[in-house]
Design a protein that fits this description.
Spore Coat Polysaccharide Biosynthesis Protein SpsA, Chain A; four-stranded mixed sheet; globular
């Protein structure tokens, strides 16, 4: 999923921003190409970026078929567009194009975890205390931290579950698993990575650069 507007990137499209000498999106694609369980990749971008994305993909030798399609106004519209391009498959893995530090191992862990319930989501335990507040910013609740997880991608689903979820989706949804949960299906959390950050602003690029340097 790479159809976001990058509003907080000061005019830079985050999925094409350079990171360690490569565009952010190229690093995402490399992880999925290295994963033996993945047979097909669909990249969903904004309509204005379809040509640019195809140029990026065509500029490197590829080990797997990669298709590019235009997304919609909302995230769920973009995911639905991507799902429509998939061939028959056993599992669907949905990942944010702005999470460039995803690894082959993280993808494989998700595929293994999804076997239990048909749906699995990468997540990490929160390290901060979380407060629930109203519109007036008055604290209403402090939930136990040991029960709180910060959700990431990849998110892995059986094709029938995620297709049903998007077919019956109502209202806005920024998380694919939420739509599956809304239908009453169980979603398994599996251990993600604190390094699996999402690029939302220019500072995040600096953090990702530092994380890459640490791995060398």
């Amino acid at each position: 999923m790479a159809a976001g507007e990058s509003r907080r990137m000061n005019g830079i499209d985050k999925v094409f921003a350079p990171l360690g000498g490569k565009p952010v999106l190229s690093r995402v694609l490399a992880a999925f190409e290295q994963c033996e369980s993945v047979s097909q990749i669909v990249v969903v971008v904004s309509e204005n970026n379809v040509g640019k994305c195809r140029e990026l993909i065509g500029g490197e030798e590829r080990s797997k078929p990669i298709e590019v399609c235009a997304g919609g106004k909302r995230r769920q519209d973009s995911v639905a567009a991507g799902l429509a391009r998939l061939d028959e498959c056993d599992w669907v893995v949905i990942h944010d194009g702005a999470r460039p530090l995803v690894t082959r191992e993280l993808i494989e862990r998700g595929l293994e975890a999804a076997k239990e319930t048909g749906a699995a989501v990468a997540a990490v335990p929160v390290t901060d205390t979380i407060k629930v507040a109203g519109d007036d910013r008055i604290v209403r609740q402090t939930p136990p931290r040991q029960n709180l997880w910060a959700v990431q991608t990849p998110q892995v689903f059986r094709p029938d579950l995620i297709s049903e979820a998007y077919h019956r989706a109502a209202g806005e949804a920024t998380d694919d698993a939420f739509l599956v949960e809304a239908l009453g299906y169980e979603v398994k959390l599996y251990m993600g990575s604190y390094d699996n950050i999402k690029i939302t602003n220019s500072d995040d690029l600096l953090i990702a650069e530092a994380l890459l340097e640490r791995e060398k």
